[in-house]
Amino acid sequence: MTAGLAGDTAVALHPAFTVPSIGEILYFLIHLYDGLPIWAIPIFWAALVCILGSFVSLIVLIIRAALIRRELRDVDRQPREKSGEDDFLWVFMVPALNEEITITDSVSRLLEVEVTHKRILVINDGSSDKTGEILAGLAAPELTVLTRVPPNARQGKSEALNDAWRYLHARILGSGVYAGWDPARVIVTIVDADGRLDPEAWRVAAPFADPLVGGVQSQVRIYNRHGFITWAQDLEFGVFGSVFQLGRVAWGTANMGGNGQFNRLAALDSVAEEDTAGNRGPWLAGRLTEDQDIGLRLIHAGWRGAQSTVVTINQQGLHSLRALYRQRTRWSQGAWQVLDRIWPSMRNPHLGFVAKVDQLWYLLTPIVQAIVGLSVVLSVIFLAFGLYRPHWSIFIIVLFYVFSAGPGIAGVFFARRRPGLVPFLMNLLLAHLYLFYSWLIYPVVYRALLRQLIGRNSWAKTKREAIAPAPGPAPSPLTPGTETA
């Protein structure tokens, strides 16, 4: 009944498994939605176009991702001494607002990252819990705590990151051992307070050897995947990084995903703007997905975006469906917000025609989701009230299944490559569970649209769950630097 289901005049196939002729297929398509209310036909045709477009897009990205993974196989095995990581200064920025549960774990793991030149800059954004006390008790020469106080504090993640960016230029690069360090050789890494960055994060030095690469996104995974919802989130991130991100590497349009994003400081500097208060910074205030926004602006400025195949950042998933809805509503609203980046993307002189088409399809994601979802709702209503009675055939059912469920299944199989019959059957089962999860959270696209239309941009912070202490040696007795903003 949704885009792709048979209409009243669909041709019945005899016997059931006989493949129809070209003429029968054309007749079926012409009369696909006969019997539907006139006002609903454009919606179903639009949904059909969206489904077919998504199918083609995913197949193209899977093929390109497979080629990129093959090309990077030798590079990914490169030892640290040949990586060139010591040519860069690695600055890890950790925005922290009421993060007493996870901040010690996150900072401890950053201290274990194996890079020659390192600074860790934690932004305590006006925390009212014990975050400040915990940070004051941490000790490491690489660690600096930038404390934001009212009225500057709690203005948003973008403002906190911009404060850290200004501090980096004024203090870290303005004086001391790293004074005058070339911004082209400074890698700014955003790590959320629940993030567990791979100790071998130096491996992203390889793509940064290309001076045009402005950002590299690490693979994001969920470490507390103890139930269906968190397991599905882990698979979701795995599919996104392995297919959608990696498939865009050759175009240079892989976007930034927030936690675990690496940005060249020179690239951030090139997109910095002044806010209404006259403060300068790369991240724009008011963007609910500041990572997606800055990734797009870097691409518009001529920088290339890349995706790592080997560096991973693990973060906490959400066990509560209510909390997940709240988080994904914010993400979805951020996707609605960046629709204003469509025109700059189409005018981007640094991208070819195919890359622009892909960027357009990527930015249209919330609209595509809204149209397909609406067709599903209308199908249920029409069938439930007997307003439409489709004529089914095995061929039509299989065709509908392939185009609607096929893309998600293909993405799961590509992200979870396992040889053998048992892994194949397991992946098939997991893929269908993943499809169920995708439809479970589907309503957020409409909730986000409503919030965007009525001008609601506020968001609730995701609550952390308790974790085990981070392993490793005890910290040194040195005291971290502190700054107040």
UniProtKB/TrEMBL annotation:
Protein location: Membrane
Bilayer-spanning residue ranges: 12-33, 39-63, 360-388, 394-414, 421-442
Signal peptide: none
Keyword terms, alphabetized: Glycosyltransferase, Membrane, Transferase, Transmembrane, Transmembrane helix
Keyword Transmembrane helix: yes
Superkingdom of origin: Bacteria
Name of the molecule in the record: Glycosyltransferase
Higher taxonomy: Bacteria, Bacillati, Actinomycetota, Actinomycetes, Micrococcales
Protein's membrane topology: Multi-pass membrane protein
